[in-house]
Design brief:
eight-stranded mixed beta barrel, five-stranded antiparallel sheet
Length: 875
Amino acid sequence: MYPIRRIVGRGHAEIGPRALLHRFRSAFQDAPIGIGLADLEWRFVEVNGALCQLLGYSAEELSRTTVQAITHPLDVESMMAEARQLLAGQTARFQAEQRYLHADGRTGWALISVSLMREPSGRPAYYVMGMDDITRQKTDRLRTMPEALTRMLAEAPTLEVASRALLQRLCEELGWQIGQLWIRDREDDVLRLQDFWHAPSLEAGANVTNSVTTHPETDLPSQVVAAGKPIWIVDLVSSNSDAGPRPPVADGLHGAFGFPILNGSHVTGVVSFYGGAVAEPDEDLLAMVKELGGRLGRFIERRRAERAVQVTSEHVRGVLDNVADGIISTDESGVVEFFNRAAQRLFGYALVEVRGQDAKMLIAEPYRRDFVSHLDNYLRPGKSAASVSGSRELWGQRKDGSIFPMEFRASEMVLGGERRFVGILHDISAQRAQKDALEYQSLHDPLTGLPNRMLFNDRLRQAIVVGHRAREPVVLLIMDMDRFKEVNDTLGHQVGDLLLQQVALRLAATLRQSDTVARLGGDEFAVLPASGTDLNGGTHAAKKILQALEHPFVVDGRNIDVGASIGIAHCPEHGEEADTLMRHADVAMYVAKRTKRGYAVYAPQLDEHTAAHLALIGELRHAIAHNELVLHYQPTVALASGRTIGVEALVRWQHPKQGLMPPDQFIPAAEETELVQPLAHWVLNQGLSQLRSWNDTGLDVGLAVNLSSWNLRDPEFPELASGLLDRWSVQPHRLNLEITESGIMAPSAIFDAITRLSTLGIGLSIDDFGTGYSSLARLKRLPVNEIKIDKSFIIGMMADTMSVSIVRSVIELGHNMGLRVVAEGVENREAWEKLMTLCCDLAQGHYLCPPMPATDLTRWFRESGLGPQIQASSA
């Protein structure tokens, strides 16, 4: 306790020594790394739990020992040398990687950091030592080193270029002061010094660069060659074996180590090291250099073989240059080595322009990944010769940028022991044109040229997948012509066909190019609006179509007046599978035809199958009563501070059979019945309970809850909200109630409820602002605190300037009215940065954090850096 009391005993009278002592001890004991205090004799006087766990001793056992006793003997002297510099005031602290001795006898590695605490007079008091176990990191570095060094060699043009960097990396990683690379001369059967590296602190003399070993029979490299395995000399000075002449800087050297470079069982070179410390053999290091020696040997031998292959290649090129088809050869990495004359004519490149380039430059951009995958497949190690040929259709790209289809046939050859990839290229433009024509006919209606049912169904399925991934709606329109049968029966099928062609043209002219229009058969058409179109957009498209069809068609000199009936279905609300959407849109279309309304939107009550809906209402009543609902929370972050200021409570239903159900699958059912009131009560109660828990832990955060306009029609709702605030001891200003823009413009009863809630101090927010029909005169009379810009405008900011203008106008309107402005649907950093430039106040969206359970959000508060401020006391 003495050192800790000395630390907290001065300068903190205003806090109180006992409290400060408690704080320091808690921080000391709870530190994630081992910390120990030692006197000037290096005896432990205070240790934390992490250090005890690291070393395997109890605190009492450590108090009876010294730092030297738990340090590996080979590292004690270097640590004491650093300590002497601390005592002399030459340095404030030192840090080192060194070995420690565990209580169970094993040796580990630790990153230690030592500083010296002094008295106010400057007199040394005690050492503070931190220890962080890095045994696994050291082992991992050794394990991955062969691959990293081999990659370094592979990326260098020659061994000579890479050898110095290789030796430096090995010495620095393994703790040696000198490294030498010896290569065996096959002709003279001697070792020649290829390269060397030494630590900057050493003075390397000219003799280090001797071209041949001086004592071929007895020096370290020659001993390694003779043994064919690593040799470790613990101490050059005390060793009885003759390690041969050491480098001229060897006066201060002790440890030595060398390992062979092997090609199979044949030694092709040696790497040797020297260091100043007496070094015991390291089993992990020996295992690593065994693998590294084999890799280096294979690399050196491969480079030698490459030179031999070059001679053979010249002859092969002469033959291939006279083949009619284009031929390309690459190495295993896909780099072009040969490009015959036919290939040069096909692509418009000269050999010099493609040699040394990646072969994928000859492939059109969208198909390059497929080509690389194809190449990797054929060059996969261990493939049999029978499996390395095959043809594939790809799109080539000429020098002028034009693209063309080609047949690509792959094969393999081996030159000088190394594999080479050979590709035969053949232009198939004519064959492809014929195939495309047949495919077009199979996917398009021959009469109108529109996509047929098969192609439309495929596009609908794709749109549903994309919409699900992008969280965007998908709208489907099914259209059936009115009075078309009369045209066929009266004027004949030929006139009917001409009419259908004109209908197809008018549909295409009315809708956007990004919309898909198809003829399903007979007089039935389908429309798939572009991605992101919601139900409002679908009804707008239906109205445009009906308006366009109001004008008569002129066919064979006759004015023909026909109309249409359109059914609309929406994903995911009306189904999440193509067949379901088609069926529901068809149901709605027949309703529109029967009621002569022009178009109808599918609703479950239009279908025969309403039993499931009734069952859902009963299950929802049970779920509210038996706590089957759960709340997820999404944070609202202030753009200025980057801190969470509140969370929005979003209800989910943990259905016993259907799993976690989103609110859009049961909220409409609640609003159709009296369940909307108990549902709101449940959400408020659970949300305020969680808010109380967060506030009790010091998190300065508020709660937002979505309400239905039906809740505000209940005259008892304000008292309900007030009672729940009292129950959970939450201040009213921490609760914000959200209601949609269209809902807030409803009858005066809602206005009265809003006024009473405001009087209680509860905040009010207008949700989905910009999608309703607000009256500014009414809006300015409402006691609202906040408006939330609908996410459709935020998402649209990145695509069109109109959305940016709308968002800017809403922000300025809100600020001019003294309101706080929240942007919903922030899905990317670009939107966040744009909102900052527009001076928006708050943001919410998946870019920041998706909705999640309270426990996950609490973790997010701690780890994201965007959590709320910590308050001194709960609110």
